[in-house]
């Protein structure tokens, strides 16, 4: 629907540009004829035609420019979004200017437990459905300033901003309990899942971000090893 509207608007701007050029052309022709023949009493028509041509062309150019801006921001949004869940993707996390990670940030790597079993039991489409529903559930229960990314496969990254490790772990624990107590209804069938999470705070200094991500990954590994459906914090 958006693309139809976009193409229609694009057509309008090219039409305006074309008609502006045609009207200006006739205005210039009349001007030129005036100069090689005797001046007519229609000199004001030339001026009107030239002015209309200019207005049409300028409007066409403005519309064209506006459409380029809209298209650019749409492409940027598509590039930063995971197509399945609609969550931000890894590219968005890495985008240097648009995504600023402050030093009071805690990362939580969240992974669905035994997700392979969901696929094997209910089918791959059901697995996709669960990922979509889980992304909706988590993103609707985080603060506006926090960020939620699909990190890959059945793994997500939560970024708790302006938070200490203790606060973030409380929030993550609530989310874990929320997932545990929810069920996703697919064609009358209730699918239940649990998640494990590993948390780490970004510490000041060079490489803080990478270190925190690695520590969160190690903590997640421990959460899996310690029985799943639990959260662990970086040592
Ligand atoms: N439906 C679906 N499955 C996916 C997607 N991405 C990854 N998977 C599946 O997720 C499963 C991950 O399996 P494993 O890495 O063994 O992990 P797991 O079964 O969740 O087990 P643990 O993480 O150890 O609790 C694999 O079967 C992948 O095929 C996806 O986008 N959709």
TrEMBL record:
The keyword Transmembrane helix applies. Its EC number is 2.7.7.65. The chain crosses the membrane at residues 12-33, 48-65. It holds the Pfam family GGDEF. It catalyses: 2 GTP = 3',3'-c-di-GMP + 2 diphosphate. Keywords: Membrane, Transmembrane, Transmembrane helix. Residues 103-235 form the GGDEF domain. It is an enzyme of class 2 (transferase). This is diguanylate cyclase. It comes from Shewanella litorisediminis.
């Amino acid at each position: 629907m958006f693309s139809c509207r976009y193409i229609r608007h694009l057509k309008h701007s090219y039409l305006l540009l074309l008609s502006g050029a045609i009207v200006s052309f006739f205005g210039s022709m009349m001007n030129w004829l005036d100069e090689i023949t005797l001046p007519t009493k229609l000199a004001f028509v030339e001026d009107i035609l030239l002015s209309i041509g200019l207005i049409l062309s300028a409007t066409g150019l403005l519309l064209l420019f506006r459409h380029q801006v809209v298209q650019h921001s749409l492409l940027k949004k598509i590039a930063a979004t995971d197509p399945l869940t609609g969550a931000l993707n890894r590219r968005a996390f890495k985008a240097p200017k648009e995504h600023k990670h402050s030093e009071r940030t805690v990362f939580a790597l969240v992974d669905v437990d035994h997700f392979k079993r969901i696929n094997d039991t209910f089918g791959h489409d059901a697995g996709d459905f669960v990922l979509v529903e889980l992304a909706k559930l988590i993103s609707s229960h985080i603060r506006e300033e926090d960020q939620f990314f699909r990190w890959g496969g059945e793994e997500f990254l939560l970024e708790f901003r302006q938070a200490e490790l203790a606060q973030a772990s409380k929030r993550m624990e609530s989310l874990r309990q929320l997932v545990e107590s929810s069920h996703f209804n697919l064609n009358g069938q209730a699918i239940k899942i649990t998640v494990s999470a590993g948390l780490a705070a970004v510490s000041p200094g060079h490489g803080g971000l990478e270190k925190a991500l690695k520590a969160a990954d190690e903590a997640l590994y421990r959460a899996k090893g310690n029985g799943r459906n639990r959260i662990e914090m970086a040592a």
